[in-house]
Write a structure and sequence with these properties.
Layout: E1 3-7, H1 14-27, E2 32-37, H2 42-51, E3 56-58, H3 65-76, E4 81-89, H4 118-121, H5 139-146, E5 150-155, H6 162-173, E6 179-187, H7 190-200, E7 207-212, E8 221-222, E9 225-226, H8 235-249, H9 252-259, E10 281-286, E11 291-293, H10 296-304, E12 307-312, E13 326-329, E14 331-332, H11 338-343, H12 345-356, E15 361-364, H13 366-371, E16 372-376, E17 382-384, E18 389-408, E19 420-431, E20 440-444, E21 450-454, E22 462-465, H14 476-491
Parallel strand pairs: 1-4, 1-5, 2-3, 2-4, 5-6, 6-7, 10-12, 10-13, 13-15, 15-22, 16-18
Antiparallel strand pairs: 8-9, 11-14, 16-17, 18-19, 18-20, 20-21
Helix pairs in contact: 1-2, 1-8
């Protein structure tokens, strides 16, 4: 068993409630595994900071329904308690389902993500019929997949009697969703709380928590969401305040049994691993304040497939790591640290030299921006970057956001021409020059609207794209990357 923390809409305080629960549980020395519905990178950073354990993303678009179930089962078994933070409003998702895995024609996804049989099961569409045609990949969808109860967070700052109508509507909209209770957030006074309780009493819906309006608990944000944990020196003090709040604001007597993880009668199979070479291939993974958008499952897969991950900082280090055969640049906020990145000329030059001499490199979103000639920030200032790609990234006010279906237009570092992959875009930059031989033709996930061509594959050893990908259901992608890295390792070792 576990609980899903859902909101009646975005901005009601799901993350605050989740972190408060996690902080209070961890203060009690409980072993907690957290999960996050959807493609978000930043909320999981906060989860991990509190629990000391990597948060796992549950996203049926980026992976598959089967993978979501296997991932949850596998990781929740390793802890005393399990907690899932939802995304947006409870029923907010996308339209339709998806074919599991990557590939064209009737080719499946090869190796299953967490369990061997997922490859076969995933070749079919796994759509669960819903009463809401646009709730695929929503919190409600994940709740149905995992058969978990939901605690609904309601923003009460502008409510009194109407809170009952909201709670009743969410509880009755889809009878397959079990609303175990509610958390009342941003309650203003004792009188306000009394009105809310009187309104909810006829529903006989448990109130699991009451959070008063807090002036001293604020997590700063910026243009893509919350400011990441590495940039918040006062974060531990904030978490302590959340733990103090959690100790008193929740009905722990009724919450703890719902949060308790229960062993499965048939534990998930361990991942099926191919025969691995005796020697590891070393991959330099850029991870610092500028580059920190990584799915933990991707990093785990690389290690399971025979990679030694060498973490380093394009911001702080004087050189790229020695003896590596590949590079991985995740997303993040390179535009915020553009001046510092630009001033580290030795690293910029070394990255360019290594890639132009054949080192395989994956660069997603922020990583793509770093491989450009320049980043032009929100103030119009230009900062030199690695200069691998003959284009510049320009920051702007327009937000590009959404799931993508991407069809490979050519063989590239990771996939063959004609392969369909699924990913997610989330950025406020655009490129001054688009590639003449793009990697992908992209469209929105939930409709046929064409989003144009994108992705740089020149030099041929580069995979640079704005589309973030999760490899949980597509093990052949990291396999292909490591295969290309091993080709380099057989030629020479980089110093």
């Amino acid at each position: 068993m576990a609980l899903i923390i859902a909101g009646e809409r975005s901005g009601v305080g799901k993350t605050t409630v989740t972190l408060t629960l996690l902080a209070s549980l961890c203060r009690r020395d409980r072993l907690v595994q957290s999960f996050k519905v959807g493609p978000d990178y930043i909320d999981p950073m906060f989860h991990q900071h509190v629990t000391g354990r990597p948060c796992r993303n549950l996203d049926s678009v980026l992976t598959s329904e089967a993978y979501v179930q296997q991932c949850f089962a596998r990781h929740s078994q390793l802890s005393e308690y399990a907690l899932v933070e939802g995304v947006m409003g409870l029923f907010d998702g996308v339209k339709g389902s998806r074919e599991w895995g990557v590939g064209s024609g009737d080719e499946g996804a090869g190796g299953a993500g967490e369990a061997g049989e997922a490859g076969e099961a995933g070749k079919e569409k796994l759509l669960i019929n819903t009463q809401c045609p646009t709730d695929f990949a929503s919190t409600a969808h994940i709740a149905r997949l995992l058969d978990l109860p939901v605690v609904l967070v309601i923003d009460c700052s502008r409510l009194s009697g109407s809170v009952a109508a909201i709670a009743h509507g969410y509880r009755s909209f889809d009878p397959r969703i079990k609303i175990a209770g509610v958390v009342l957030n941003r309650v203003g006074s004792d009188r306000h709380l009394s009105l809310l309780k009187d309104s909810l009493e006829p529903l006989q819906l448990p109130i699991f928590g009451v959070l008063r309006r807090q002036d001293n608990i604020t997590i700063p944000d910026r243009h893509l969401g919350l400011v990441p944990t590495a940039e918040l020196p006062e974060l531990n003090a904030l978490i302590n305040r959340l733990a103090d709040l959690g100790d008193t604001c929740f009905d722990w007597q009724h919450l703890l049994p719902l949060l308790k993880s229960k062993p499965l009668p048939h534990p998930p199979h361990p991942p099926h691993l191919p025969h691995l070479p005796s020697s590891l291939v070393r991959i330099a993974v850029a991870r610092d304040r500028a580059f920190n958008f990584y799915y933990q499952d991707n990093l785990d897969l690389l290690q399971q497939l025979g990679a030694e991950l060498v973490f380093w900082s394009p911001l702080e280090d004087a050189a790229i790591p020695k003896d590596v055969q590949g590079m991985y640049f995740g997303g993040g906020f390179p535009e915020v640290f553009a001046q510092q990145l630009a001033e580290n000329t030795s690293v910029r030059d070394a990255v360019k030299t290594a890639i132009l001499q054949g080192m395989p490199a994956i660069a997603e979103c922020g990583g793509l921006m770093y491989l450009c000639e320049q980043i032009i920030d929100f103030e119009g200032k230009s900062w030199s970057m690695a200069g691998v790609l003959p284009t510049s990234a320009v920051m702007g006010g327009r937000l590009t956001l959404g799931y993508r279906r991407a069809v490979a237009l050519q063989d590239n570092l990771l996939v063959k021409a004609g392969t369909t992959v699924y990913g997610h875009e989330f950025h406020r930059s655009h490129l001054t020059l688009n590639p003449t031989q793009p990697l992908f033709e992209t469209s929105r996930y939930d409709c046929e609207e064409n989003m144009g061509c994108e992705g740089w594959g020149l030099p041929k050893n580069v995979y640079a794209s704005y589309v973030h990908s999760h490899w949980g259901g597509t093990r052949e992608i990291p396999q292909q990357f490591l295969q290309e890295c091993r080709k380099l390792a057989s030629i020479e070792t980089w110093k």
